[in-house]
Please model this.
Amino acid sequence: MFEWNESFSVDIPLIDQQHKKLFDIGERVYRLIEEDYNNKNFHEIMNLIDELYKYTKYHFEEEEKIMKFYNFPELNIHRHEHNKFIEYLDDIRIGEIAKEEDSALNDLISFIASWIVRHIGSVDVKYKEYIMKKNNRFFDFKS
Ligand SMILES: [Fe+2]
Model:
């Protein structure tokens, strides 16, 4: 479900690396849900969702630092998207959304996967284009 490929590249190695790690954690959550026939992994799934929440939060902060560094004009809109998603993951993490039903967990992970794919493809791509235009080269940001 979570498969990173070159089309997701934002041409910033640090961020590509973080996106790959996000996909990795997402894929681990997905697989655990898939093999969880009797809800016996529920606790483990929640632990992984907690890991996903923490890593996503860290990653968004890193991305926002880069956008700020380059005075990206749409930083606030972008940050708003990040915050909404973090709130969503936080709600799952603290048990507000999660229910002990396979179908509910499947829906959650599908939503998370499609959100991340859409966000990288249609929102992150905007700072990618902006930074590329400003620098006219591939960029190697070190935080
Ligand atoms: Fe982003």
In short: The chain has a mean pLDDT of 89. The pocket of fe (ii) ion is lined by residues 63, 78, 82, 119, 123-124 (CB under 6 Å).
